[in-house]
C-alpha cells in the first residue's frame, strides 16, 4: 500500500459560550483547525486533525496548512502508511517541531492501518487495558469568581467528579476563584488547577500553599515553558502532585523533566507530541521511571479525540482513573464534524470497536464550516 495524495482543509467552528476557555494564554472562543485526508492506492483513506494554537505551540491554521502542503505531505507520498516509524522519520526529516501538523498525517496513517487490518487502533497499539468508556474532568475557564461558582454547580449536576480550574493570573483573583469553586462543589470532589505557565515559581508556591485548605488534588503546569528548575522547586515546596504539560512536547522534554525531578505526572496527547506513536513512547518512558501520565487536550474535534481515546485505552500508564484527563473537546463546539460522533455523556467518553480511529467525517458539514 502507498500514499497517493493528501488533502488539507481549514475549518472554523465556534466554541459554546458556557464552555469558553479563558487562561493566561487568552480566550479560546473559536477553533480554527485543519482536517487532513490521506489517500492510498488501495482505496482506503485515513483522516487526521490539526489543532494549533499560535500562542501555545507556535502553529496557526495557516502556517500548518502551508507546511503540510509544501513540506510534510510531499515527504510521505509513495510511502507505506502502515509503516508508522518510517512516516515519522520522513516527517521529522522535513522540519523541526510543528508537532500538531505532523500528528495529523501520523494519526491518519494509524486510521488507514486499522482499516486495512479491520481492527481499531487501540488493538494495533497492543490491545485494550481498560474499558472503552473513560471518565474525564471538566476544564473551567479563569472566570470571575461568581461565574466560576455558578458554572461549577452546573458541572456537579452534570455528573463531573473532577473539575480543573484555570489560574495563572493575578494571585488574589486566582485564589478567590478557587475558593469559590471549592465552596460550590463541596469537599468530596476533586479540584485541580492549571496555570498554563502563567505563574513564576514564587507566585505558584505562594498561591498553592495559600490554597492548602481547598484540597487541591493536582497542580498542572504552574511555571514557564522551558524552566525545569522552577517546576522542580514548586514540586519540592508544595504538597499537591505536579503535572507537566506545556513544557513537554517530545521525548527530550520528557527526559529533562525526569532528570530534573520536576514532576509527578506528564500530560500527553497525540497532537502535542507529534503523533500517537510518539505519545505512547513518552508514556512508556515515564512508566519506566515511575512517573504517571494522563491525557491532555487542545479542544479537539472527533478525529483528534478518537486518537487520544485509543491511546488512553491501550496504555496502562495513562492513569486516568486516578487523574482524569480531558477528552471532551467535541462537546465544547457548536458543530460536530463526524457522521458518527464519539459518544460523550457528561464526563463519560466512549469509543467503539470500529476499525481505525472509528470516525467518519461528514464532509458536507465540513464544507459549510470551511475557513477561507
Concise synopsis of the structure shown:
Strand 11, helix 9 and strand 12 form a beta-alpha-beta unit.
CATH superfamily of the largest domain: Enolase-like C-terminal domain
* Biggest pleated sheet: 7 strands, parallel
Structural class designation? alpha/beta
- CATH secondary-structure class of the largest domain: Alpha Beta
Question: Key features?
Answer:
three-stranded antiparallel sheet; 372 residues; seven-stranded parallel sheet; globular; Enolase-like, domain 1; alpha/beta; single chain
How would you explain this protein's 3D organization?
The protein is an alpha/beta fold and 372 residues long. The chain is 40% helix and 19% strand. The protein is built from 14 helices and 15 strands. It has a seven-stranded parallel sheet with strand order 7-8-9-10-11-12-13. Strands 1-4-5 form a three-stranded antiparallel sheet, sandwiched between helices. Strand 4 and strand 5 form a beta hairpin. Helix 1 (61-76) packs across helix 3, helix 2 runs antiparallel to helix 3 (99-117) and helix 6 packs parallel to helix 7 (201-210). The model has no long low-confidence stretch (mean pLDDT 97).
What order do the helices and strands come in, and which of them pair?
Layout: E1 3-14, E2 21-23, E3 26-28, E4 30-40, E5 46-50, H1 61-76, H2 84-94, H3 99-117, H4 121-124, E6 133-135, E7 138-140, H5 145-157, E8 162-166, H6 171-185, E9 190-194, H7 201-210, E10 216-220, H8 228-237, E11 242-244, H9 251-259, E12 265-268, H10 270-273, H11 276-288, E13 292-295, H12 302-314, H13 329-332, E14 343-345, E15 348-350, H14 363-369
Parallel strand pairs: 7-8, 8-9, 9-10, 10-11, 11-12, 12-13
Antiparallel strand pairs: 1-4, 2-3, 4-5, 6-15, 14-15
Helix pairs in contact: 1-2, 1-3, 2-3, 5-6, 6-7, 7-8, 9-11
Amino acid at each position: 500500500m502507498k500514499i497517493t495524495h493528501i488533502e488539507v482543509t481549514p475549518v472554523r467552528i465556534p466554541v459554546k459560550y458556557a464552555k469558553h476557555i479563558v487562561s493566561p494564554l487568552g480566550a479560546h472562543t473559536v477553533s480554527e483547525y485543519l482536517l487532513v485526508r490521506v489517500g492510498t492506492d488501495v482505496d482506503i483513506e485515513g483522516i487526521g486533525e490539526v489543532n494549533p494554537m499560535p500562542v501555545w505551540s507556535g502553529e496557526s491554521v495557516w502556517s500548518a496548512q502551508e507546511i503540510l502542503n509544501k513540506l510534510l505531505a510531499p515527504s510521505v507520498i509513495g510511502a507505506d502508511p502502515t509503516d508508522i516509524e518510517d512516516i515519522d522519520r520522513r516527517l521529522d526529516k522535513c522540519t523541526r517541531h510543528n508537532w500538531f501538523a505532523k500528528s495529523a498525517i501520523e494519526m491518519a496513517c494509524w486510521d488507514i492501518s486499522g482499516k486495512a487490518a479491520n481492527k481499531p487502533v487501540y488493538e494495533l497499539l497492543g490491545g485494550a487495558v481498560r474499558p472503552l468508556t473513560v471518565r474525564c474532568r471538566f476544564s473551567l475557564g479563569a472566570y470571575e469568581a461568581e461565574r466560576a461558582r455558578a458554572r461549577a454547580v452546573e458541572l456537579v449536576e452534570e455528573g463531573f467528579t473532577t473539575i480543573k480550574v484555570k489560574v495563572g493570573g493575578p494571585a488574589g483573583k486566582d485564589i478567590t476563584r478557587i475558593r469559590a469553586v471549592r465552596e460550590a462543589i463541596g469537599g468530596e470532589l476533586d479540584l485541580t488547577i492549571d496555570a498554563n505557565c502563567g505563574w513564576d515559581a514564587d507566585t505558584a508556591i505562594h498561591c498553592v500553599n495559600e490554597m492548602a485548605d481547598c484540597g487541591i488534588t493536582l497542580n498542572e503546569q504552574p511555571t514557564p515553558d522551558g524552566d525545569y528548575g522552577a517546576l522542580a522547586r514548586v514540586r519540592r515546596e508544595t504538597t499537591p502532585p505536579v503535572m507537566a504539560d506545556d513544557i513537554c512536547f517530545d521525548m527530550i522534554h520528557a527526559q529533562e523533566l525526569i532528570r530534573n525531578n520536576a514532576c509527578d505526572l506528564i500530560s500527553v496527547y497525540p497532537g502535542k507530541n507529534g503523533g500517537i506513536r510518539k505519545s505512547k513512547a513518552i508514556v512508556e518512558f515515564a512508566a519506566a521511571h515511575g512517573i504517571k501520565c494522563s491525557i491532555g487536550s487542545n479542544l479537539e474535534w472527533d478525529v483528534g479525540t478518537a486518537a487520544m481515546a485509543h491511546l488512553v485505552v491501550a496504555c496502562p500508564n495513562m492513569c486516568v482513573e486516578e487523574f482524569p484527563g480531558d477528552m471532551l473537546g467535541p462537546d465544547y463546539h457548536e458543530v460536530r464534524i463526524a457522521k458518527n460522533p464519539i459518544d460523550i455523556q457528561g464526563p463519560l467518553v466512549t469509543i467503539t470497536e470500529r476499525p481505525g480511529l472509528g470516525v467518519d467525517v461528514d464532509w458536507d458539514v465540513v464544507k459549510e464550516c470551511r475557513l477561507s
